[in-house]
Amino acid sequence: DSPLGFAPLRRHLAGRLAERGIAAEAGQILLADGGTQAIDLIGRFLLEPGDAVLVDDPCYFNFLGVLRAHRARVIGVPRTPAGPDLDTFARAAAEHRPKLYVTNAALHNPTGASLAPQIAHRLLTLAEAHDLVVVEDDIFADFESEPSPRLAALDGLQRVIHIGSFSKTLSAAVRCGFIAARPDWIEGLTDLKLATSFSNGALAARLVHRLLTDGSYRRHVEGLRGRLARAMGETARRLGAL
After folding, report:
1. What are phi and psi of 135, to 5 degrees?
2. In which element (H, E) is residue 194 found?
3. H or E element: which one contains 161?
4. What is the Cα–Cα distance from 160 to 100, expressed in whole angstroms?
5. DSSP string spanning 2-39?
6. Is the pTM of this model over 0.90?
7. Would you give the DSSP letter of residue 137?
8. Pick from 11, 7, 73: which is nearest to 43 by CA?
9. pLDDT digit string (tens) for 162-176?
10. Residue 2's CB: how many other CB atoms inside 10 A?
11. 176-233: per-residue pLDDT in tens?
12. Which of 54, 89, 90, 110 has its CA 20 to 30 A from that of 133?
């Protein structure tokens, strides 16, 4: 296979990203075996032992597992309904000089909140001022009913690395994700992926491409959104009663 992964899928993903305002050519997209491998590769590529990394508090538990495997110093920033607490973020960035900030911009895990536009703009200003890279894990994007801001779209993939995956929407057994980043980073990440895994998940990539292009994926996700909306309504009703 191509070192970057199945080319027809990467071209299709470039079109899907463009619909969310993220300009990335197929050559700026590297396929990975799910979102976890994508974050692991980024950690291997950009982190040295002892580097500080900012995460949301609370955050997805395996962000912590992967970052600790790279012997990073993990610094939590309280998560609000509109995004990270920016005063705490600024203090942590000044004090710890982090290399990365790892977050879910949309449908944050575990709070379910999405970034507000004003928070997104200020967050990118702080990231530039403190010279840190933002890793935007967007694996829940297809569950959104109304689109929210994407840091990668606002930033133009200059200091934001965008991650996607189909493990949550299709199956945890279908290990197919991707990294979208600026070209020089993709080149280094590709070399690192080949050095550590020596392959691509070609079968999963072709399966995902087929489902995306024949309409099956769209129908499947529409059904999932309906089920999630009903479950959310019932959950809110029960919580209200309590």
Report:
1. -105, 110
2. helix 183-197
3. strand 160-165
4. 10
5. -TT--HHHHHHHHHHHHHTT----GGGEEEESSHHHHH
6. yes
7. E
8. 73
9. 999 999 999 989 899
10. 12
11. 999 999 999 999 999 999 998 887 889 999 999 999 999 999 999 999 999 999 999 9
12. 110
Measured between alpha carbons, how far is 96 from 47 in angstroms, rounded to an integer?
14
- Give the distance, in angstroms, between the CA of residue 13 and the centroid of all CA atoms in the same chain: 14
Tokens found for residue 101: 């900030």
Q: Which two tokens stand for residue 52?
A: 């500080």
Q: Which domains does the chain have, with CATH numbers?
A: 7-240 (3.40.640.10)
Give the Cα separation of 37 and 178 in Å (integer).
Answer: 9
- Kindly report the CA angle at 60 between 167 and 210, in degrees rounded to 5? 10
Element (H, E) at 191: helix 183-197
What is the residue whose two structure tokens read 């991707």? 178
For residues 49-68, average pLDDT: 96
Q: What is the model's pLDDT at position 198?
A: 82
d(CA 212, CA 206) in angstroms, rounded, equals 10
Residues 6+ positions from 168 with CB-CB distance below 8 Å? 139, 140, 143
